[in-house]
Amino acid sequence: MEENTRNHYQWPAIVVGALLLIAGLILAIGGGKLLSLGGSAYYLIAGIGFIACGILLAKRHSAALWLYALILFATLVWAIWEVGLDWWQLVPRVAIPCLIGIVLLLPWWRKPLHSRGGSIALVGSIAAAIIVAIASQLNDPATIEGVLANNRQSNADNINPAQVAGDDWPAYGGTNAGTHYSSLSQITPANIGELEEVWRIQTGDKAGPNAPPEITNQNTPLKVNGNLYICTSHSRAMALSPETGETLWQFDPEISTMGADDFSGWAHMTCRGLAYYDAANYSISSDASESGLPAPYDIFGNSDIFSLDLSFLALLFGVEDDSNTSPMISETDVMCPRRLYLPTADARLIALNADTGERCANFGNNGEVDLTNNIGDFSPGGYYSTSPATVTENLVILGGHVTDNSSTDEPSGVIRAFDVHTGELVWNWDSGNPDETDPLPEGETYTRNSPNVWAPISVDETLGMVYLPMGNATPDQYGANRTENDETYSASLVALNLEDGQVEWVYQFVHHDLWDMDTPAQPVLIDLTTNDGIQPAVIQPTKQGSLYVLNRETGEPIVPIEEVAAPQGAVDGDWTAATQPRSALNLLPPPLTERDMWGASPFDQMMCRIQFNALRYEGQYTPPSLEGSIIYPGNVGVMNWGGVAVDPERQALFTGAKYLAFVSTLIPRDEVEEGQGSASEQGLQPNEGAPYAVELGPLLSVLGLPCQAPSWGDVAGIDLQSNEVVWKHRNGTTRDSMPFNLPIGLNVGVPALGGPLTTGGGVSFLSGTLDQYLRGYDITTGEELYKARLPAGGQATPMTYTGNDGRQYVVVTAGGHGTFGTKMGDYVIGYALPESPAR
User: Which of 513, 516, 719, 778 is the catalytic position?
Assistant: First the structure.
């Protein structure tokens, strides 16, 4: 009878033993490779243990359970020694070995071994693993718990109205200060849970089969003039009812493929927003004629000064007479008193009547300015303004996207200021020729390949300065041939005189940038309360994780900036800067170590550890190399174009932070086939004209998961008076990143690509995570209070306003992002409380 029982269990034991043997061989071979690279010896030792255990189990030897109990317990001790009680770090180290132990306790394998002691030992090891798992749930090393102070009362008298949006949202960042802040307070931590979707539209602008790889829907709507205004990825403009989303008018510029067969070869296709101008907002005095800007015309078309009585203005423009001043009105203002400026993907700037959606015929040529003027040759889609223009009393100012890493002969990154009424070019600032700001004569070309500004621009009209977040001369990863001006202005913040475009000051954030750490976000202007009194500050978010806080009048640091030593040893012919500037206020993650490598199992984690040791990595600013270098934070940044939200009343900052490592590998020119290269910003970047192409991509495991341990995305709250990160939490789940469409996700903290919003009600919003949600947070503690499921990726920045019905609305674009990998769509969605609270 006993012999029959042993025979009955023979084949299951052999099969499981063989599986353990195979697993052991994989671990031993990989572990040997890892050890040869200077890595951990654990995997080799564990592999040998698995092999021995598999053989013992196949032979139905009683020592199999004892040995596996020892392997599991040793693995648990090693894991705690490496990463402590960090749940997400423990999972790939312990979860599968623990599961195997549970399987070995099943009667099919346990009974024929006749090892009561081994069974008890294995139960003990499993119990220890479970206890550690429970204990690790009470601890999260990635989290900072704290409470932001509420300084509203003490700061109330010092609020600059130019830094606060109210009932309207008249500019991309709320105002030209870029704070992403609204003083509206109907929605609070107490009632945000009642927020509900009240309208939803589809624009009809969907990504087709011939769309660029990085087609995106990053639009932040404007609410002004009683309407909601949006643009779509194909540069279409629409006016909507703020209360219902009903389409009031739409304008299609019918963008050209610019000689290409279709749009599939373009790198980008996006429109982050429109810009708005209202003549009634400005009272133009005779001083304007002394500014050097073109003098406005009166309604009769003469250049003589002519004052309109405001009662007539009210009839003409439909505005209330709430002032004793009498502005002059230009001829174009009479025809288009309220206008929108639309940048198009085929490099035009179009002025539209905000009331009707028709072209403002007296702006430029039939309502448009050709932005290719004086630019020179470029590939279709290789130059245009993806970010909205910035509008002042007299000017409409914008830069442009230039395709990264295509060649060393790309268009200039010139910044141009056009007359807001006529479209005439007033000044241009080309970082390749920074002192000559007079309009370039016809037939001449701006400096090729000079650093550009692709992110939104900020303006302080009181100081008379415009603030430029500068990009790089392309290519990003090789800089031996950059000019002195390139080295001065790349990856910096430049302040220009608003009147004539001359440089007031410049502060560089990355010296000789070889990592695509260009300045990616709109500078934030805030009057900051410091120990030295109130200072006019500008806060610049960056990809490398530093938040640089400068005096916006002088460019001097308000928060200390230290020059830290940087790794050396660039590729032959190039060089690296000895030091790099790091702000004392930052969200920079700790340097990676082998212990930070992650996976879904010990096997892919081991492979990630092998990758880590095989690649070059000496900390932040490790230069690109032929063997491949780890770039961490990667070039998608800790912060990117979405920037940060700043509450000037509370003197607090709310932001998302991303943590993904990338790999940058230089490829010698003779190893690159002609025409080879990716159309997106990942994969092979051709860098034509440079001695090296570059292969770019995230550091991923063989299963396609990030090789570094989560969190990969957080939200954080910062006290700007103490310069302290008060709280930081994981943000987002794996719900929409799983291989199966399950209605649940693991709260690991995922990357977000999109901007934040914060409000006077003490709640903040973010929608850009890889999972499809709009989330609301208590800015005081960072607690997630609200979550609404989106029909597509929300890679945009939410905004808020008061509707004509007195309700506070929150609106977000949900259209996805081509290279971020989220679901594509064409949605714009409005949320509000069920009933309008007392205002």
Answer: 516
